[in-house]
Amino acid sequence: MPTNAPSAAHTLSDVTSSDSTLRRFLHGLPGVDAVGLEARAASLGTRSIKTTAKAYAIDLAISMVDLTTLEGADTPGKVRALGAKAVRPDPTDRTTPTTAAVCVYPDMVAVAKEAVAGSGVKVASVATAFPAGRAALPVKLADVRDAVAAGADEIDMVIDRGAFLAGNYLKVYDEIVAVKETCGAARLKVIFETGELSTYDNIRRASWLGMLAGADFIKTSTGKVAVNATPANTLLMLEAVRDFRAQTGVQVGVKPAGGIRTTKDAIKFLVLVNETAGADWLDNHWFRFGASSLLNDLLMQRQKLATGRYSGPDYVTVD
Q1: What is the DSSP code string of the chain?
Q2: Are 102 and 68 in contact (CB under 8 A)?
Q3: Quick check: is 268 catalytic?
Q4: Given 255, 265, 268, 297, which residue is catalytic?
Q5: Which residues lie closer than 8 Å to 26 by C-beta, 6 or more apart?
Q6: Averaged pLDDT, 72-77
Q7: Which of 279, 318, 277 is nearest to 296 (CA)?
Q8: For residue range 33-43, what is the model confidence (pLDDT) as tens digits?
Q9: From 219, 265, 268, 297, active-site residue
Q10: Alpha carbon distance 45, 121 (integer Å)
Q11: Is 113 exposed, middle or buried (0-12, 13-18, 19+ CB in 10 A)?
Q12: What residues contact 90, with CB distance under 8 A and at least 6 apart?
């Protein structure tokens, strides 16, 4: 069984020994065929999933949602309501799976933790000066410590995109390592903000850099920029985790976030997972959706399959 180890240094220690060796490794990765990547993502998106397979996919997708609120206007009441929805997505149907997690800012972790207590739903928290990541490392680590101390089970950090785009890969690597150490037992999701990385080659390099530094998950985006998760960039990251496990034996999760709003979208991403990384990733320990409105559509489609009709507008809560 593959593991999510703190680092792959035991197999690739020479790669991260200096800035020059890390650069040589990352720039030695195969170049991405953008046309081929986008064509394969589009092709996989045409797969037709119906009847019992669709019902299974909807429940699986619900169980993979990180139900998220990351707004300046978040209140304890809103976070408690979000937690209640994560625990009981459909109060009229107890067979509905819980979501994987709720994701909130660090100052709301304690509220979220209380709201989901005893349910198995995890509490994730963004940290490291989310979403821009423009802060000194001691500030970023203090952000992580506060979230973990409040009870966060998972930390979603953002990389320093400026350092990455400037080619200062070792700085980015060292920051991820430091955050991972500060997380303690909490799992670490590393956000690349793929919409700001400009090229598919950069997304592949960022994926390997994050995994080398000990990420438990690699994540596309913050949801705060114009371009977030796409089938193509998620496919590329799935290829990276597949190849990383083949080389190191270490399994790393993937989390597309931002812009995934419909059941049809979610099922397309599940097909990508199955056909690219494989069935081992079809579990919420290894794949998540960062979303808010997605859950509502999944619930409506689930009810449609069960009853043959769509419910009224008040069937699901408005996030």
Answers
A1: --B--S-SHHHHGGGGSSHHHHHHHHHTSPPP-HHHHHHHHHHHTT----HHHHHHHHHHHHHTEEEE---TT--HHHHHHHHHHHH-S-TT-TTSPPPSEEEE-GGGHHHHHHHTTTS--EEEEEESSTTTT-S-HHHHHHHHHHHHHTT-SEEEEE--HHHHHTT-HHHHHHHHHHHHHHHTTSEEEEE--GGGS-SHHHHHHHHHHHHHTT-SEEE---S-SSS---HHHHHHHHHHHHHHHHHHSB--EEE-BSS--SHHHHHHHHHHIIIII-GGG-STTTB-EEESSHHHHHHHHHHHHHHSSPPPTTSS---
A2: yes
A3: no
A4: 255
A5: 169, 205, 208, 209
A6: 96
A7: 318
A8: 999 999 999 99
A9: 219
A10: 29
A11: buried
A12: 96, 299, 302, 303, 316
Taking residue 251's Cβ as centre, other Cβ atoms within 10 Å add up to 21
Single-letter code of the amino acid located at 280: D
Q: What are the tens digits of pLDDT across the range 256-285?
A: 999 999 999 999 999 999 999 999 999 999
Distance of CA 77 to the CA centre of its chain: 25
C-alpha span between 205 and 170 (Å, rounded):
12
Q: Which residues pair with 67 in a beta bridge?
A: 102, 291
Give yes or no: 255 in active site: yes
Residues with Cβ within 8 Å of residue 129, at least 6 apart in sequence = 135, 139, 140, 143, 158
Average pLDDT over residues 179-183: 98
Which residue among 90, 156, 265, 297 is the active-site one? 156
Q: What is the pTM of this model?
A: 0.93
Tokens matching residue 73: 């206007």
